[in-house]
Amino acid sequence: MSTAHPPQDRAGTPDAGDGHPDGAAPTRSRVTFRVNGEPADLTVDHRATLLDVLREDLGLTGAKKGCDHGQCGACTVLVDGRRANSCLLLAVAQDGAEVITIEGLAAGDELHPLQQAFLDRDAFQCGYCTSGQLCSAVGMFAEAAAGHPSHVTDPARPAGRGPVELTPAEIRERLSGNLCRCGAYPHIVAAVEDVTR
Ligand code: FES
Ligand code: FES
C-alpha cells in the first residue's frame, strides 16, 4: 500500500455546548479547513471520517466509499498535497488542512491532463475507482518528482538524486493501493504514462 498519510497534529475546537448534560466531554468540534480552494467551516462528530464529511456534509460525492477500511483506495483525496485514504482520517483532525478532491482537479472547464488521458485511453469501465485513481496518481507525481523511492526503485540509486522516473513498474507499484474491480489496470498505466512523457 503506497498511499501516504498526512501528519495528524491538529484538531478542531471542542463544541462545549455539545457535551452530555452530566458534564461528559464534548462529542463534536468545530473545524475549519479548505476544500478545493473554498473554506469549509463546520461542526463535526469526533467519530466522523473525512470521507463521510466530504460526501454527506459538503456534497462532494466524487470520493467513493469502497471498503471503508483503507484497503481499496476509492476514497483517495489530497491533503496538504499528499494522497490519503479519506476513510481513515478523522475530519476533526483536519483543522487547517488543504483538501483537494476529484471535484477540484480540473481548472474550470479544462480537465486536468490526467483526466483527459483517462478519457483518451478509456481507462475505466464502471468508474467507481476512477476518482481515487486520479487523485492517487496526482499525489504519486509529486512523490516521484521529490525523489521518494518505491518498493521497486533501484536500491542502488542514491537518495535525494532528483526525480524518480515513472516507469510502468513504478506506476504499477505506486498505484497498487488503488484497486480496480473492472481490471482496467493496463489502460490506467497507459494513461498515467501519457502524462509523464
Ligand atoms: S474506502 Fe477508503 S480505502 Fe477503501
Ligand atoms: S473502473 Fe470499475 S472499479 Fe475501476
From TrEMBL:
Pathway the protein acts in: Alkaloid degradation; nicotine degradation
Record's keyword terms, sorted: 2Fe-2S, Iron, Iron-sulfur, Metal-binding, Oxidoreductase
SUPFAM superfamilies (UniProt xref): 2Fe-2S ferredoxin-like (SSF54292), CO dehydrogenase ISP C-domain like (SSF47741)
Origin: domain of life: Bacteria
PANTHER family: OXIDOREDUCTASE WITH IRON-SULFUR SUBUNIT (PTHR45331:SF2), OXIDOREDUCTASE, IRON-SULPHUR BINDING SUBUNIT-RELATED-RELATED (PTHR45331)
Domain called 2Fe-2S ferredoxin-type: residue spans: 29-105
Membrane spanning residue stretches: none
Region spans: Disordered: 1-29
Species this chain originates from: Streptomyces lavendofoliae
The protein, known as: Oxidoreductase
Gene3D superfamilies xrefs: 3.10.20.30, [2Fe-2S]-binding domain (1.10.150.120)
One MF term in the entry's GO annotations: oxidoreductase activity, acting on the aldehyde or oxo group of donors
